[in-house]
Sequence to fold (655 residues):
Amino acid sequence: MERRKGALLVLAIISVIWSLLPIYWLLNMSFMFPAEIFAVPAHLFPQDPTPNNYLRAFGYPTYDPKTGAELTRGGGHSVYITGGLLNSFMIAVPVTLLTIALASPAGYAFGRIGFAHKNKLLFLLIGSRSLPPVSILVPYFLIYFMLGLVGTHLGMILIYLSITVPLITWVLMGFFATLPVETERAARIDGCTRFQAFLKVVLPMARPGIASCTMLAFLISWNEFMFAWILAGGSPAQTIPPALASMFYQWAEIELMSAANTIAIIPPIIIAMIFQKYITQLRIVDPVTVVGA
Amino acid sequence: MKVVLKDVFKKFGEVTAVDHVDLEINDKEFFVLLGPSGGGKSTILNLIAGLERETSGEIYFDDLLVNKMPPEKRDVAMVFQSYALYPHMNVFDNIAFGLKVRKMLRDEINKRVEYAAGMLRIKDLLKRKPHELSGGQRQRVALARAIVRKPKVFLLDEPMSNVDAKLRVPMRTELIRLQKSLGTTAVYVTHDQVEAMTMADRVAIIDLGKVQQVGSPLETYLKPLSIFVGGFIGTPPMNFFDCSLKMNDGEGRLETAMFSLPIGADVVRTLKERATGSELALGVRPEDISVYRERPFESIEVEVYALEPLGKEIVVDLKLGDEIVKAVTDPTFPGRMGDKVWMTINKERMHVFDRKTEKCVL
Fold:
């Protein structure tokens, strides 16, 4: 038993290192001066940590800490980074809210209510996600072009909803189906209409599921690259992933890219940390029937 | 309030759950739906609550047809097997929920919750969440939630099945006292015939979606109308012997494979009148069989197969041919396994059923 626990612990540590190592290296490089990046052997920690790369990413001028001489001027690529961050927020937040607002009742309907052609609709819903996105990129571009949605926030919100709503509906459907029917029935008996019972009893019980789906929807719309690149790349609605990618086209400044990338992963990390609290509360789903049974 | 079901029929897909049921549940009555699992009794309860819609038939609350009324309008209260407390609300909010949904004033809500919690002795639990409660406490909260609304009828769906066996007996009496003091009609679903016998004013025995018999618990015990009811009510269950009516020199006898029982002329007349054919079943309760060490008159020779002492009585399993007959005798019965003994049947209290119709003919 003890040995097994030990083995599990080792595996857990390996998987954590495996996933955190690139992030650590990103962080490491983001605090270095350009010359140190190429040091051989590589430095595990910056020997002379500097906030310069972050200042540059946000458009501030930087100075040599010893001589006080100006190293870089402000501005430059920072407009794409700050603009990209802002656009990502302007797109990911409404997408997340709309996804939950649309997918919760849809997931409830699929998970709880029998209706005509349910299976066919479900097949369409899930089938729409099984296409490789790149295969529908060209038609999307043409349609968007004709509708004037290329390079707009609205266009990006719509395209991301088409990804998140089916997926989250599917996930929530399974979640709603596992919630105890009797609790919802008790709410009906207590005087709720079906919709009130959904709002006041089913949704609060589904909180952990909805929390994880909120996170998922945010991460999908924050991280999506391909549609953002083709439909909004270089436009005023460009999100952070294509903005980061565009830094490759210029003189590749690894330390600046590291800082920009680090900034870009902070919002998802914060979101994950906020919702982690709810996800670990999973036992609120159904203490009565699960514990009572 | 009176609840009346008229020719109620319910199908789930191709499966018939409730098969043309007629029931009349009187005002202030504690009415029990008793039957094996899957017999349709919970479906009947859900139909009364409006949680399921009948395929055909009519349901009345007093004189009001409620078929099309959604559950939230019916003003019934239900206690579920799992209690179905709202996990995200504390005990107070669980009890008050139905009142809040109905937009009752805060003072009135507080007063009513206080009263209900007092009645069920859970005042000190009001701030707790359901997952912090024991099974018995959850049941009390579920009951408080039901009574706080002062509904027209209580519907209880196997509320005892998640309570510790020890707690069940006091809870039964408490529940009856509660129902009688509130004077609210109650419909109680259970598969436990002891619960039905001890709690019901009247009981309906439900099997295969049909009402097999309605009556007081004692009636169903003394006068079972079918083989099913005879076998379902009473522990240990009734013994059945396949038999036929034989006439011999004007004397009637019930002939089984193992013994033949002489019967009176009036019994013969009744059987001839009411039975559809010659295939009958003799039903005898274990408490109507006497066991003797010495051979008495009109007795049947059997072998003691097993003994189950229960303290105040002994259940004796008797081997008759290939069959086991159960008898209940007083605890001083001296027989041992393998002993040869004799049994007699109390003919005053025997039951005869028609094998074909499965109905009682005597």
Remarks:
- The domain at 239-354 of chain B is CATH 2.40.50.140 (OB fold (Dihydrolipoamide Acetyltransferase, E2P)).
